[in-house]
Amino acid sequence: MTQITLYNTRTRRKEPFRPLDWRGDAVPEAERRVRMYVCGPTVYDRAHLGNARAVVVFDMLYRLLRQVYGPERVIYARNFTDVDDKINARAQETGRPISDITAETTQWFLDDMTALGALEPDEMPRATAYIPQMIAMIEELIAGGHAYDAEGHVLFRVRSYSDYGKLSGRSVDDMIAGARVEVAPYKEDPLDFVLWKPSAPDLPGWDSPWGRGRPGWHIECSAMSHDLFGETFDIHGGGNDLIFPHHENEIAQSRCAHPEGGFAEIWMHNEMLQVEGRKMSKSLGNFFTVRDLLDQGVPGEVIRFVMLGTHYRKPMDWTEKKREEAENELRKWRDIEGAAKATTPPSKFVSVLANDLNTPGAISELRKLAKEITALDRVNPNRQRLVGEFLAAAQLMGLLEDSYETGGWVLDIEAQKQIENAPEYELVEELIARRLQARKEKDFATSDRIRDALVDAGITIKDTPEGAEWERGSNFDPAKLEALK
Q: With DSSP H G I counted as helix, E B as strand and the rest as coil, what are the percentages for the chain, rounded to 5?
């Protein structure tokens, strides 16, 4: 089994990944599972590119875990925050019911992420479906002295958890000195954060021991992950903007509510995204959503490829140049693919990817494979084997799949398949190979005769350093090739 190594934000070092269920013999082999929870979107608007980067990063990790441990052994949960002040504000702005907004934007998110080749998680809990679990956890925190009721609010008592700040590397005193925190008269300490707050009659609310209200943001992920995975699970992920305060608060309330557990063993965070070297911002005019790019005709596969070209722990810069380069490279790879079927990715490729999700290194391995393949004649028996491995490796990264349905990308794929499935395809490929062999033997008369016959039959040939490329024109006449059989 390939050893996966991951950078743990909590320990600030790369660690060999050892799933909890594989430690010792307590869990029967057939029941062992890898459990991963990732913080999902607040559903009030379209997902922007920064949102998409986190999805692509953890989709890539999900695919790797499935490759190493088996698809049936990995459980991936990503939540939807469907109760939030931003959603309430959007409802007031538009006059639309909150339920309509959250249902619409949830589907937008799923559609846009599918366009980027992201697999749907096994579990997609919605916050509003877990209100009873949140109330129960808050009651446990109050009973343990870690939370208190004040003026209809319930707040977490930060100083009751001695390890608060270890994930983000901050001390409580430094936080108070430099943090922008809400100072309310009902707080015992400026750092105490809200677990429950009262709701006005025109806002979403649920009955609770503290009156009608709604949960704070942080409690939802703790309650949902506990309900799905228990007191301790393997991996918790999200963007690095969530380290503080969201993930710091999750750890505190979860460890205090369930001190017998360890919550998440490994914490992973992706870096942020820029556009043309600048922070993405509406004020700078460089803010755009995934749907903006898709509607402009940028294939989802291209967006994914650009994102995977930068290691997840480094800032990623989206540029028009990268987009063009990605599209050109993917088109060449599609040509290599041909009618081949995926087999098994090379072990070296998987090992590179397993080294802290090294997607740039994995892409380099794909490029090496592509170069090796294009150096071989189309009739070389090793070529088909290498293409199968190449395709399997690419598909492990969510590339070169037939599921992309954006712009003209699928049309290009389908057109290629029609050519490959045509009866004359193998004949043209054979003639191209014979022409190449004749050139190698310096038999230019035969080479020129085959080329002229192909051109006369409506085949356009372009010689490149990677080999001969050909296209079938509208004037294609297969009968003109019969004499060359």
A: 50, 15, 35
Q: What tokens does 364 get?
A: 């380099």
Q: How far apart are CA 409 and CA 399, in angstroms?
A: 12
Residue 445 in tokens: 């008369």
d(CA 3, CA 354): 7
Cβ-contact 222, 254 below 8 angstroms: yes
pLDDT average, residue stretch 9-20:
97
- Please give the full DSSP string across 411-461, using - where no structure is assigned: HHHHHHHHHHHSTTHHHHHHHHHHHHHHHHTT-HHHHHHHHHHHHHTTEEE
Give the other-Cβ count within 10 Å of 260's Cβ. 7
DSSP code at position 245: I
* Pair 419, 448: CB distance under 8 Å: no
- At 359 the three-state DSSP class reads helix
> Contact at 8 Å (CB) between 263 and 251?
yes
The beta strand positions in 271-360, using DSSP E, are 273-275, 278-279, 316-318
Residues with Cβ within 8 Å of residue 122, at least 6 apart in sequence? 74, 75, 76, 77
- Amino acid identity of residue 193, one-letter, is F
pLDDT above 90 coverage of the chain, percent: 71
Mean pLDDT of 426-451: 85
Task: Give the strand pairing for 273-275 and 147-150.
Answer: unpaired
Residue 284 near residue 77 (C-beta atoms within 8 A): no
pLDDT tens digits, one per residue of 151-202: 999 999 999 999 999 999 988 877 765 555 557 888 999 899 999 999 999 8
AA identity, residue 300 = G
